[in-house]
Specification:
Rossmann fold, 12 helices, 374 residues, single chain, five-stranded mixed β-sheet, two-stranded antiparallel sheet, alpha+beta, elongated, 15 strands
Length: 374
Amino acid sequence: MQKMIDEGVQVDSVVTDPPYELGFMGKSWDSTGIAFQKETWELAFQLLKPGGHLLAFAGSRTYHRIAVAIEDAGFEIRDQIMWLYGSGFPKSLNIGKAIDKRRSSNNVIRPWLKSLGSREELAKVAKVSPRQIDHYIGENTPCPQTLTYERFILICDYYKSYPEWSDDMFPKVGKKIGEKIHGRSGGEDFGKIVGSKSTTKTEDITESATDEAKQWEGWGTALKPAHEPVVMARKPVEGTVAENVLKHGTGGINIDECRIPLEGEPPPSGSAKRVYKSNQYTEDKTYGDNKTTPESGRFPANVMHDGSEVVVKEFPYNKSTRHMSYKRSGGDFIDGIPNQEENSWFVSEEGSAARFFYCPKVSKSERNRGLDDF
């Protein structure tokens, strides 16, 4: 942006998907703090013409920091667009399994490993690198790991060390979802261990292995992500909006181009008739009348979605109805509602309301366009 500013370039709008500052996948590029710095958005401010709009995607947990930085840079926050999607993956810690791992890794497996030999010797026995042993024993590493079952067997056989706790704890720790049938609760290869049982046993390895973990079975730490907020901001206009539009061509939103056309469907209509006089509802004064949606489509909203089934089913499906009206009798109010002489409800075309908010995710080719040098 600075290069464009130095060249005297000014643009009508800036649309950006900055780092959400979540440290995504442990990557440093997503935790630099650049999106929280007002200096970043001051460059976008300088690049825009007066009245130019900024759209900045953000994460649900860090939106507020980005929005404040944008506002501090001089922008007006005009709205927040909510993008709904159904493809989010919950990044929740399974507390029950975490307790199992803590017991096995920290209190049992790791001390046992350290007692057997050096990291170099353990690496040779387990057929892994010494660095992997660091992960298994939880030393000199930012990401400790649970010893895998296969490596555990290799180490047991080499050192002739068969821990008592392996029978009912180890097979359930760090395993994939499903069932495992084996000749001993430690796995099929535990048949090699002296004194192993010969009876077949089926273990549900999705269950917690320890009593402490069972108390927290089903607990987690996060919800499934299903929306991304988008900051909608504008650089202040010069004078009035009308004056700014005539001078710079910016400051407004092309509403009609954002409408969803009806495509031959009958336009919905509804009654906005209200009458009020001297604290009474009468027919003497009317403000508003029946309103019909333009043929060009509905007014665009600040909600979008990706079209996935899980999102679409949350929108109501309306069947075609005819315009209906009726007359009321009795007092001035019925159940707290003004007793108007004539009432009606809108005519609705058939279909899901989701079609008015559809905005698909970009394709892989579009997302990576212009990133060949990265």
